Amino acid sequence: MDKVMSAEQAVARIRSGDVLLVGGFLQRGSPETLLGALLERDVKDLTIVSNDTGTADTKTIQLMEKGMVSHAKATYIGANRLAGQMLIDDPSSVELVPQGTLAERIRAAGAGLGGILVEVGLGTVAAENKDTLEVDGKTYILEKPLFGDVALIYATIADKQGNLHMKGATKNFNCLMPLAADLVLVEAEKIVEVGELDSEMIHVPGALVDCICQREED
Amino acid sequence: MDKVMSAEQAVARIRSGDVLLVGGFLQRGSPETLLGALLERDVKDLTIVSNDTGTADTKTIQLMEKGMVSHAKATYIGANRLAGQMLIDDPSSVELVPQGTLAERIRAAGAGLGGILVEVGLGTVAAENKDTLEVDGKTYILEKPLFGDVALIYATIADKQGNLHMKGATKNFNCLMPLAADLVLVEAEKIVEVGELDSEMIHVPGALVDCICQREED
Amino acid sequence: MNAKEIIARRAALEPKDGDLINLGIGLPTMVPEHLPEDVHVYIQSENGILGVGPKPEEGHEDWHVFDAGGSLVTAKPGAMFFDSAYSFSLIRGGHVDITFLGALQVDEKGNLASWMIPGKRVPGMGGAMDLVVGAKRVVITMEHTLKGAPKLFSTCTYPLTAVSVVDRIITELAVIDVTERGFVVKELAEGVTFEDVERATDATLHKADKIITMPLA
Amino acid sequence: MNAKEIIARRAALEPKDGDLINLGIGLPTMVPEHLPEDVHVYIQSENGILGVGPKPEEGHEDWHVFDAGGSLVTAKPGAMFFDSAYSFSLIRGGHVDITFLGALQVDEKGNLASWMIPGKRVPGMGGAMDLVVGAKRVVITMEHTLKGAPKLFSTCTYPLTAVSVVDRIITELAVIDVTERGFVVKELAEGVTFEDVERATDATLHKADKIITMPLA
Q1: Where would a tag sit more exposed on chain D, N or C end, judged by fewer CB atoms within 10 A?
Q2: Model pTM greater than 0.95?
Q3: What DSSP character marks residue B169?
Q4: ipTM confidence score
């Protein structure tokens, strides 16, 4: 059960058409080493689910430049010129989701919920084409779970079993996505032996993680 | 904004008719000092929401003996003779809830969800008197958020701002309930200065906590 | 070898290396000690631990580390602790590979009754309903009969824990899968005949294409 | 004192001691430096921090600690870090006492448009929809007009961020509450008349029973 491998070996398991859950927030804590390795792969028609599709400094934009991405779901695309262009060219290719709803939908997928009822987005475009439901006199949008085929995750520390620690504000979507994808690929700043990472500092259990690679220096 | 006080001062804010969310799992990590102080109060018609209503060694059973508890919601009552008797005497006074559903309902209350769709309990008594919903061809039970007036919480370490750390398996419902109650009372094994509890070890933010008292030695 | 040990030994052959498993109270907790040496599993205790280790040595107990029965345990290196919402996310989100638990009744549609006996005190379902619905595989480990009375039925009569969830039943007599055809006997314990199992069962049993002798290691 | 400083100073009088507040990008981030000395607040950054401190000193940056704009910040002693689901639990669960943010348009029903201008590139709503629906109080901090054009309307024309959520608007001219009657002017900045505000507003303004001069400390 050796999970430690190169980024190239890890991303070799990504297929055309896959839905990729990509952790990170703007230019921080995004799995840049895995995305860099993915750039070398000959896959296309990928769906990127991430908070913000990154910035001009991150590699999601390069995946888009290479024509590998056909769909994106995000809360914010203002820092990625190409995601903005995708939305203009084909409005159905980009789904904008309120940030809490994106987090809850990914969590719902990981937690086995069939859906969640949310108030956020009522009376806005975020409610378009969605079912609403009245419960005890209040109206809610029924939001459905959002699954991925593969999660691309940043961790500050990983042990060799795949237990992960995300320091500070790098937890964001990196902690949620490993539960919601079939295959979980992780890049870690530091890879340590099992037991070196304190149990109370583990944010994602190794049982969920399939591949760990060393993150390249920024 | 001094939140540190005696258990007596903390529980003075509990009123008859309140719904109490009580952390802990069986005889472990239950807020026994707060419950002990509550025993001295002249309040009644309390609703206890907890994993298991405790055991013969914990104080929820003493609240019941004193006739202070009119309702209970729990996943398991097999270790509390009086809760079992309540159910026999008046089936409507005790609601049994699958453990994951109890956790998700309390979380939903804390997270502002109007409801969650769950599969667990379909075809069993746990689905009785509940609405079901079909989403994409699958049937789910609509479970509603479960709020409390007051949360009674165990923490291993609290800082004076109310930031809490729960060691090991004492997180259980202790971590969830502070988001779901109007008033949050905490007993801590150890109370430290702000900054002594490492940011990465905090499970509940002080902003949610109203009162902190010293847990008495077991 | 007594019935419980036979069951635990056979059950220990179920997990694959790297599986996340959950163990009910009682007999299922005997499974880990019989795991093959090359099979490492993550044991969850639904009250908030993934990576449960053996009981603590005397003098080394930490009361903050306990299992779903309230008993003190240890956490293995690399264990994680979490709250009940996260724990049941693991369970209901399909991240548990196998849940081993006992039963009062199982029927040929895979229905399970394990949490209350009508007319007796009702303990509550705890996490059982979640586990059997959420886990990828539900393996019932139990003695084949209770004081001589069958526990496998054509239809459960007790209140259900869940509908159509049981994958496999391991008893001291046989390994029986629940399939579209109903109960299918796959393995028989050493010296046990198909007819022996039929006599101890209150439902139709089918024979697998090939019935093997129950391996115990 | 320029318009932004007036707004930030007045906004800094809104929180009570112990409040949990969230600050939008831009002007709202100027609020903390003007807080009264006896008012201690918990500042959330929705990307995963509660207890945001000032910018790091040069040489003391840790890139793991950043705010929702991606800028490096510090965490105060007692700060907590969490994932996005927890962060938005705090927001949507009603645990944020005040969210301060800017607006493109606000109307007299409390509707808010703040996330897109039709015909221009669409940046996305980020966490804004969540914040204005979930926070206990929504306080809009913005200059009263944009290049002379009003931003307060009888009805918003841009796509909405949320319906009927704005509680108070603080501009360099006035403090205006959204009530059942519509916009009610509660405070006027030093030297500003009710008519001045009316001229800069494209909606009916009502007078509070007593209009006071906007305090700035």
Answers
A1: C
A2: yes
A3: G
A4: 0.97
